[in-house]
Design a protein that fits this description.
Two copies of one chain form a homodimer. With 298 residues, the first copy, chain A, is an alpha+beta fold. The first copy, chain A, has two domains: 141 residues, 60s Ribosomal Protein L30, Chain: A; 132 residues, PurM-like C-terminal domain (Phosphoribosyl-aminoimidazole Synthetase, Chain A, domain 2, Alpha-Beta Complex). The first copy, chain A, is built from seven helices and 13 strands. In chain A, β2 and β3 form a beta hairpin. The two termini of chain A are 13 Å apart.
């Protein structure tokens, strides 16, 4: 395969195969965060998200929006594991001429969110760069009993999402609320079998959950909550940057959640055996394969 | 002050002033790593280093050298605190066309060093980018009794370095050995009052140690070990990328270290009261102020 044609998944698998870790690493490459042995009843969670000018934001995006989004993306990863964020480290590459004004704006956006979710910003690195680059690394923790991986979905689980999908890149991606509150509510009250955050589009992230769990799935077009920001239904399926939670619950638990009257979560389908693949049922009851078309870096 | 004229220290101080952390943060912004409460007898150390094409390496630098250096810089920060590295997270921004070949080379260099120092690589982020950007975040740990900050130097301490200085950017910076072994030897056998790694040049990093400790210093030209790579003496003083340890020991401890016959460490001067500033004594016994001229990003 020529190097230009390689997929993101292929690249990640290439990296994973080269790596051997010791037994204190509960989960390495391949989930929303790494999971490390920590104390008797807690794991440590650890994630990093790199945002690059021209890819994740434009040269015209206000610095405070970049700061907000940089932390929000990592917070979303912690939420996806059923965890609580604790500490952040911020690496910044910025053009020299912009440095002071950028830093003021960037940190006003980032610290607003850090205070809201009680994240300690404990350091980082500062470098000059032609284009703006931000990498936020976040440490969190999760009760061992409440940790949720993307690999635990079971056949007949109900698939749910935490909010509306599509059209985020028209603006919502710069001010979304990471679903930490929703995640805590779920793991404190329900048996969540699998979870991740929809960062690259429902179709792609659902395929990751299914691949991680060794299962298939079916989702129903009429059940998928489409954001008013989306221009059409395909944007709810395939557009990235939603940062909603996608998770699976055993049938009884899903019934209990829906009956609870909590309007924040919508059932969109169910987990099926792997050999059935991943299908979407249209409004006129036709099944078709759901291709993983979300945002891929490579 | 126009934003183009702002110094790195000024920028870091601007950031620090905006941040409030809880009591589990033993040391936030301002040392080689953050220091976090961990267990009864250990702290957790946490650092990130961002390397950018055109700043820290060129477009012609082999991928394996970039991988090696990216991890080595962070390992050097852990060494500077008297710590042991445990876990690494790697964020990479790379041009699409180069992705596969770059990743193979990058990880062969990085993993060679990770295996040598038993670092678990547990995840990261992969993004496309016009220029190569690497951010390695590293978690380590330190015995509470052995942690060394840059802020503990005392008047009359002896100043020492772990190796030869200058000329690293002509090649050594891509294959230097992080001083973890030396650091462990020091903190296990001596009372080290202050330490940091010389990443931006002796004169600048000495000024950081003195500022952090509220002291002055005097160093002797004839005692400073100059690398054969250095073109002249000024490169040993002011050129970045040495990644040697600069540390201070009480006089008796320094005597004991020198008497031990360990050739890896050289005394270069001593800590003086703050009001005496930072001086260098030339070979003909003239004192002059040692200006902090090392590498500054801003």
């Amino acid at each position: 395969m020529p190097s230009g044609k390689v997929s993101e998944l292929d690249l990640i698998q290439r990296i994973s195969r080269k790596i051997k870790n010791d037994s204190s690493v509960i989960r390495g490459i391949g989930d929303d965060t790494a999971v490390l042995e920590y104390s008797r009843d807690k794991y440590q969670l650890w994630t990093a998200d790199m945002l690059i000018e021209g890819v994740d934001f434009t040269s015209g995006t206000p610095a405070k929006d970049i700061g907000y989004k940089a932390l929000a993306c990592s917070l979303s990863d912690i939420a996806a594991m059923g965890g609580i964020p604790r500490y952040g480290l911020v690496s910044l590459g910025i053009p020299k001429a912009k440095a002071r004004a950028f830093i003021d704006g960037f940190y006003s956006g980032l610290l607003k969110l850090a205070r809201r979710f009680r994240v300690n910003i404990v350091g980082g690195d500062l470098s000059h760069s032609d284009k703006i680059v931000v990498d936020v690394s976040l440490i969190g923790e999760a009760d061992k009993k409440k940790l949720v991986l993307r690999s635990g979905a079971k056949v007949n689980d109900i698939l749910l999402v935490s909010g509306e999908l599509g059209g985020s890149i028209y603006g919502r991606h710069l001010r979304f609320t990471p679903r930490l509150k929703e995640s805590a509510y779920l793991v404190n009250n329900y048996k969540v079998n699998a979870m991740l955050d929809i960062s690259d589009g429902l179709s792609l992230d659902l395929s990751r959950l299914c691949q991680g769990s060794g299962v298939g799935a079916v989702v129903y077009e009429e059940l998928i909550p489409v954001s008013k920001d989306a221009k059409d239904f395909s944007e709810a399926l395939d557009m990235g940057e939603d940062f909603e939670l996608l998770f699976s619950l055993p049938l009884n638990e899903a019934r209990r959640l829906i009956k609870s009257g909590n309007k924040g979560f919508k059932a969109i389908g169910e987990i099926r055996p792997r050999q059935e693949g991943i299908k979407i049922i249209s409004r006129n009851c036709k099944a078709r394969e759901l291709a993983a078309k979300g945002y891929q870096h490579f």
